[in-house]
Design a protein that fits this description.
By secondary structure, this protein is an alpha+beta fold. The chain has 2 domains: about 55 residues; about 80 residues, SH3 type barrels. Strands 4-3-2-1-5 form a 5-stranded antiparallel β-sheet, with no helix packed on it. The model has no long low-confidence stretch (mean pLDDT about 80).
Length: about 140
């Protein structure tokens, strides 16, 4: 009996009251849930601000028929070089389609009229001037 009495006072001294501990634990869980919701909210606000910032930096490109443009060659992987230009052209716009699709024609194609459809994001307006069309031939030999 005396041992139980000492254990009771030890628990009372260390504040191990079951009801109080249960309430404290529930309060801690609610605080944790509130912190999680605040983190989600701040993450959502950050994403909205970054999207608005990047959307503000985008520039709309309005292409007209007959306009000359340069095409970005993003498949230049075989022989990448520092001095090799990734822009090719100039090409002439034959048709502007919805959703930034543009039909191009190569004016230097001669009798063969080469046409293809590209994404308008890969184009930039050509302002004139002479553009040197350099070709390089690389001979590959078997080892």
């Amino acid at each position: 009996m005396e041992l139980e009495h000492k254990a009771y006072w030890a628990l009372k001294l260390l504040n191990f009251d079951e009801a109080a501990c249960g309430e404290k634990r529930i309060l801690q869980l609610m605080e944790l849930e509130e912190m999680r919701l605040n983190a989600y909210e701040s993450s959502r606000i950050y994403k909205q601000k970054m999207k608005a910032y990047h959307d503000k930096k985008l520039q709309r490109k309005d292409f007209q028929l007959g306009q000359q443009v340069l095409l970005f060659n993003f498949r230049l992987r075989l022989f990448p070089g520092k001095l090799k230009s990734k822009w090719s052209g100039p090409f002439v716009i034959k048709e502007v389609r919805p959703h930034e699709a543009v039909e191009l024609m190569d004016p230097a194609g001669g009798n063969l009229e080469r046409r293809w459809i590209v994404n308008g994001q890969h184009l930039k307006i050509y302002n004139g001037g002479q553009l040197e069309r350099l070709t390089s031939i690389v001979y590959l030999t078997d080892p």
